[in-house]
Amino acid sequence: MSLIPWFSLHPSNALFRTLSRPLTHPSLLSTMKAKMGFVVHAFTLSVLLQSAALAAPFPEASPDGKVVVAHFMVGNSYSYTRSTWSSNIALALAGGIDGFALNVGSDSWSPSRVADAYAAAIGTPFKLFLSLDMTSLPCASAGDANVIRQYVNDYANHPNQLFYRGQQVVSTFSGSDCKFGQGDINAGWNYAVKATAPKPVAFIPSFFAAPSSFASTTVMNGDFNWNGGWPAGGNDIDFSSDQTHINAIGGRYYIAPVSPGFFTHYGANTYNKNWIYRGDDWLYNSRWELLIQHRAQIDIVEIITWNDYGESHYIGPIGADQPNSQAWVNGFDHQAWNTMTKYYADAWRSGVYPQITKNQIFLSARPHSKSLTVNDPIGKPNNWQWTDDNLYAVVFSTGPGSLELSIGSSKSTTAISAGVNKIKLPLSPGSPTARLLDSKGNLLISFSPSGFTYVTNPPAYNFNYYVAASP
Fold first, then answer.
1. Which domain of life is it from (predicted)?
2. Residue 340's closest CA among 277, 392, 410, 404?
């Protein structure tokens, strides 16, 4: 693994915090609790807000209130300029994404990156809102609320701040034990995010607490069910976790997660995160289809994530500020998932799947068998047995035809219909090739993505997915 820059090694840094935050998936909740120091950063008033923009209206991201956002790790944006933000916003908009949830921690430089993000969004329809990372930000005393209040107040009138049904959206990662020196969690969070806010706040946190506690947590205007994005075992994804949270929140707002996978591979001598969640059977597509099916019960869909490289669920470009994840991220581009998102995001907002007007093939696979034993000092990731050794293909087709799919000695030919088609093929050592033919046998697409080979002798365990889309 390459070394991360010196600035990311301090426990107050969000890159460090991303790697060492508590494990919150139900199957791993009790595995560890990161202990770390915090640095309270100071704000200045030079947040680059344009005075003319402050008086502008703040429309909803979509007319019927259905919003698609992507979780963005500000801790992985140390080197970002306003131009970098602009290019990422343009890519997200092309993928049908309405905005970013800006995960902010206690880094002293985070306010400047957040200010650049909001400045870059001006003049676009792209929305932004705060996702307070409470595994990094302190919350024991009244003074700890100051940094949160400053964030909320600074962007309440920004034209690109996300408002949902007239309320400024504020979210969290964790924070169910935060009291900010007040009597209880309700008083604490009201003090931190609502008491001094210049606009009404829709507080929709991701609290890793039993859903049975939501009825008494009245400060919550809704719930973001972070852990619902992946199966909690070797099974495929379903809607049961969502339904539990929806029932518990009792008519308040619900943010549903969607994620393409999860793999992290840090040893016990660094950040002690080494596990996978099942991403098989076209998890990203299947999860989107579930959310569209249950659209009436959901207010916002949040993609996990745009740029969390350490956990391998990024759908944006691989940036320069990796949290020492290069060993399993470099060479594993995921932007095809962003391309695919446009189809599902449009369906989510409208309630109707759009007509496919362009033939396209999407391929994804892991680089080696789950059963291999590798000379890797970190060891095989926990839950490795939850995945399957398959090449997954998704075909967006304008009409009937057939798909010829191969990797190594494994081959298949499958009938294709107009719409979205899903095909899987057992993995075999080699590189994949896909050929799409129309109903008369004419070749429409021949696709052999470069840079991916399924191998039998990897240098280390890598359960990340290689993903590619045909031109």
1. Eukaryota
2. 392
pTM as predicted:
0.88
Say if residue 457's pLDDT is above 90. yes
Q: Would the pLDDT of 155 be above 50?
A: yes
Instruction: Using DSSP bridges, classify how beta strands 273-277 and 300-303 pair: parallel, antiparallel or unpaired.
Output: unpaired
End-to-end CA distance of the chain: 32
CATH code of residue 379: 2.60.40.2550
Residues facing residue 403 across a β-bridge:
414, 436
pLDDT digit string (tens) for 74-131?
A: 999 999 999 999 999 999 999 999 999 999 999 999 999 999 999 999 999 999 999 9
| Kind plus residue range of the DSSP H or E element containing 203 | strand 201-203
Report DSSP letters for 105-169, one per residue: -S-TTHHHHHHHHHHHHTTSS-EEEEEEETTTS--SSGGGHHHHHHHHHHHTT-TTB-EETTEEE
Write down the residue that tokens 């400060």 correspond to: 219
Q: Which of 350, 385, 417 is the last residue of a domain?
A: 350
Q: What is the CA radius of gyration of the chain?
A: 22
- Which structural domain, as residue segments, surrounds residue 437? 360-469
- 65 confidence band (pLDDT: 50, 70, 90): confident
Mean pLDDT, residues 443-458 taken together: 96
Six-digit token pair at 167?
């309320």
d(CA 382, CA 25): 13
CATH code at 234?
A: 3.20.20.80
Same domain? For 383 and 234 the reply is no
Instruction: Look up residue 61 and give its two tokens.
Output: 């991201």
Burial category of 128 from C-beta neighbours within 10 Å (exposed 0-12, middle 13-18, buried 19 and up): buried
Is the pLDDT at 8 greater than 70? The verdict is: no
Which of 308, 332, 350 finishes a domain? 350
Number of domains in the chain: 2
213/287 same-domain check: yes
Residues in the chain: 471
Please give the single-letter amino acid code of residue 405: L
Measured in degrees and rounded to the nearest 5, phi and psi for residue 241 equal: -65, -45
